[in-house]
Fold these 3 entries.
Entry 1:
Amino acid sequence: FALDGNNVTVDEFLINASTGALVQVTGASYSFQSLTPLARSLKVSPNGEYVFVALGTAGELVYTLDTTTGALTSSQQLGPLSSTTSDNALAVSPDSAYLYIARSGTNGGLGVYTIGANGALNPVAGSPFTTGTQPYSVAVNKAGTDVYVANRGDGTISGFSVATSGTLTALSGSPYTSGTGVTALATDSSGDYLLAAANGGSPDLTMYSFDTTTVGKLNLVTTTATGTDPTGPVAVAATH
């Protein structure tokens, strides 16, 4: 799936299992009468049943995904909390039970929603939870027990433990120092590390490990440049 910058289209491609070639299929389109969408983020739930789209001050769209045909069906629009609230990034828990939304502006912070039948979203008690300035990316650890938010405005990462009810509690030492204008987060597939890319550098890329004594706490492992500065990194992805 690809979220187009034209702010009206979700592209969808079939992946050839043998060659990796992409074949475009129907996808989806969307429109709003009174809101101006701004394409920000797209996530597919780990169970493959839902596609969530963050559209800045226009809120979210939820699509159900037919896992046989690939057809997308619009099931819900989650309206913005205010005209000055921007939904910037999304993450879904490994069990597809919760959607996390990084929000900046009025009522900003980390929104947490249960994912019900047909992708229905309902806020958990206490949502949105307080983060640093201008939350811009969100990542969940492999076990789904902790969630982290990149705060682009103050160069920090807020970390939370996740209760069985979905409510959040700040982790020990949170917020953690990161690069200037930290923009993107990723966890590696082993579940051992979290990486943060900072658009303003100082440093460009930071890698953290998860503390083995204080569960969820981030420990700095290393930092590096991503080229000849200024490089302005905007995204990061990890495998092993």
Entry 2:
Amino acid sequence: MQTVETISFKNKRALIRVDFNVPFDKQFNITDDTRIKAALPTIQKILKEGGSVVLMSHLGRPLKKLKEDGTIDREKFSLKHIIKHLSDLLGKEVKFANDCIDEDSQAMSASLQPGEILLLENTRFYKEEEKGEENFAKKLASHGDIYVNDAFGSAHRAHASTTIVANSFSKENKCFGYLMAAEVANADKVLHKAAKPFTAILGGAKVSDKILIIENLLNIADNIIIGGGMAYTFFKAKGGNIGNSLVEADKLDLALEVLERAKAKGVQILLPEDSIIADKFDNDAVTQISDNMNIPDGWMGLDIGHNAIATFEEVIENSKTILWNGPMGVFEMDNFQNGTKSIALAVADATKNGAFSLVGGGDSVAAVNKFQLADKVSYVSTGGGALLEFFEGKTLPGVAALL
């Protein structure tokens, strides 16, 4: 793959697709700038070489969340709220275009001098972005001499700014940014070059969200740990009483089929033996520990129990490669965070002892950040849906467009 490392940007305009889809509070203060910081090395490399930078990104889904009068909420979804913070991080002024394809934005990018930076307005203000419309992509492409994709989190979308825009650049003039290259290399290492034993830890609410990744992992993993809400669908399928725990009633046969296929392939699927159960979905709920085949009526599992933690920790401790996607319980509530925290600590310990660990998916990343363990694992991915689709065995359009 060609990366920014192999291209000279002197006196060139680099059009960089970044992922600045960051969360704000009501006063438009950025509450998590992880994605912005992740793009800095690529930007700084280009500026240092004497190039100029044009940044493009989406922010939220403005066309899906229109104002009551049917118009776009340009204030809420504007990337202008990022300018000050980005300028502070880079230590230099970031210019801003109020549109991403109009004549004014074209004039601003055309007049950029080496070392200057321009941020374009939200690409999703145009319906042509998500439709992957060719003419819209060509207008975006006119902002740069070289196209750089550094937005792995959007690489699974065949949108204009992530994929179609690459058609306007020759193979020599398009490349991966540092972040994108690292994401692909680390994910590829787990998917195709995993040292054994390879353990995948999957959490989250629904079997249906993870079934494709489970099916693909059955071909490469030695152990698959299943926690979170989706575990109860498996217990229900096995004939257990799960009380009011989360369940996908239409996926019971599928859960049994997964267990049978794993057995036939010699893959060990580990379900949590016990849970911390609660009488309501509330941090202050009454709690007790229950075997997962016998959760009382009216109670729901909100975290894995002590026996499950001990079993999972032992498997993780003996692993050489670890993929973690999804929490073990409702870790956002302090009284139900112990399972997820324990798994995070176990992954960190295994990493310290030589295992390669990749953590991906929004909730898993939020968990390692919450417990201040992000620097204790091998790699933390910025891609949620993109990482899932990669491990489902799918081709990511944003990656394929650069190859």
Entry 3:
Amino acid sequence: AFMEAFLELEFPQFSYLIIDEAQDLMIPRYLEAMDFILDGGIQNGNWYFFMDAERQNLFHNDKNEEDVLQMLQQYNAHYTQCRLKDNCRNSVAIIEKVDEIFGTETRHKHNDERGTDVVIKTYKKTADQVSALETILRMLLREGIKSEQIVILSPIRYSNSASSLITECVVSEQPVNNAVFYSTIHGFKGLESPVIILTDIDNLTDDARMNILYVGMTRAKSALYILAQEKTAKQLGK
């Protein structure tokens, strides 16, 4: 249907195709569409795909990097593969915590910002998490951090999250002034914020859930807070 609509509207083929977060689109039907709309196709066209098909593959986690490359090879694609190894987003303290949890060895651009240590708070019940979340928000706002610089991320939607119960400040599912922004981790992938608060972390039993945690943690530029259920927190070194 997509390709039929493309023809009906008489769009010209694109000269260049540049896709960020490309791991989200690396399945046969999407590749077929890309091949169709690109002048020269995937085999001979000009394209750039930026992706992390391992840790940041949340939507098609049954496919790893090798699977993606095999799909591209089916198009006899001629491409150069470059690995971007330097972390230019996260503070040193956040990088060190990510490496500790995931067993990675991340290269980073050395700068003056170590950032604050990652803070992990544990909870037993929802009420405990709400209280901890409000305490963190109150502290950040008192320190002069603007609401717009704080993002609450969760694996679950707002209506089911502890964030829906807080009264300490305004929380919005849309980025607006004078409000803390709330998003699912899936919805915030590829984005960043100076301060990230991860909530509702109560299940890390498989690779898919660990990948969600990885994406959530690496959205934070300067400060990261994690609210985790007591048993789950043990996997985070708490």
